[in-house]
Amino acid sequence: MSNKTLHQFYIERRYSKITEKYPDPKIYPNFYKANRMEYILRPGEMIFIPAGMFHFVHSEDTDPETGLCAAINFWYNHSHGEGNDEGDPNEKIKFGWHNITFDEILPIIKEKKEIKYVRSETNCFPPSFDNKKFPNTKQISTSFEEFYNNKNKNEYITQFICKEIEKFQIPYKNKLRESALWINWGNCYTIPHYDGMDNWLCQLKGTRRVILIPQCERDLLYTINPYPLSFINSVHESLKHKRTVKVNVSIKFENSEKNDILSNINVKINHNDESNK
Questions:
Q1: Is 96 helix (H, G, I), strand (E, B) or coil?
Q2: Residue 196: CB atoms within 10 Å
């Protein structure tokens, strides 16, 4: 397995394959069984999302003056041990207020000659690590001025990493890893996923609806890689160190899905396969 394939196998444990704002209950019935908390973020408000907490973020209303929905976030190292990107289930969600303004951010992004953003054929903006799974999106580079003048509701500046905005970071007990901007024209969303870092999300313009689901509900969220975390972590660590992997797995999923995942993994698996039961 190449390093790229191994990384994708590992990272897909964190992302749901749900791409609808309101998932079809006939296709994704378990999604509606998951415990969740829901918050609306307005300008000046911020929410702390612990590492390992699934979040389903909807950009909703826009600022009446600019037409934008904008946020900035800060990722920090977590306190749960090296290599433990699943976080601590006891870490609490926090809510607070910040004094960062979009007017402070605007000159910084205007100075950038090139900004990467995503264009989607739908209102969903999934991650860019696998275009085969999400063929309706593509990444584009242009200036912020062109992005703003286009006013294309199918374009979204997603996770624009920018060192210059780190000076606005929210005080936190752990070291800042990186910060990013999220700017769009409202009425769009990213897919449910969790991060391997603690996260302060700060709203600048418009409103965002943030649905938070604890990681203990992972089996209800239709992750792209549905294997148990213990198995995924075992494969990742063993192949990273070029060791043989031999494990027993009991999991229920469609045969086509199983074959798609396993086709890229050189591991010996004894499947207690429940898919045909």
A1: strand
A2: 19
Q: With CA atoms as reference, report the closest residue to 155 among 113, 122, 197.
A: 122
Tokens standing for 64?
């009446």
Q: Which two tokens stand for residue 69?
A: 């929905």
Print pLDDT tens along the chain (277 aa).
Answer: 556 677 788 889 999 999 999 999 999 999 999 999 999 999 999 999 999 999 999 999 999 999 999 999 999 998 775 556 777 888 899 999 999 999 999 999 999 999 999 999 999 999 876 667 788 899 999 999 999 999 999 999 999 999 999 999 999 999 999 999 999 999 999 999 999 999 999 999 999 999 999 999 999 999 999 988 888 877 777 766 665 555 555 555 455 555 455 555 555 455 454 443 3
How many residues does this entry show for the chain? 277
- pTM for this model (two decimals): 0.87
Give dist(CA 225, CA 87) in Å, integer: 18
φ, ψ at 153 (rounded to 5°)? -70, -10
Spell out the residues 6+ positions from residue 227 whose beta carbon is closer than 8 angstroms to its own.
Answer: 13, 249, 251, 261
Cβ pair 17, 169 in contact under 8 A: no
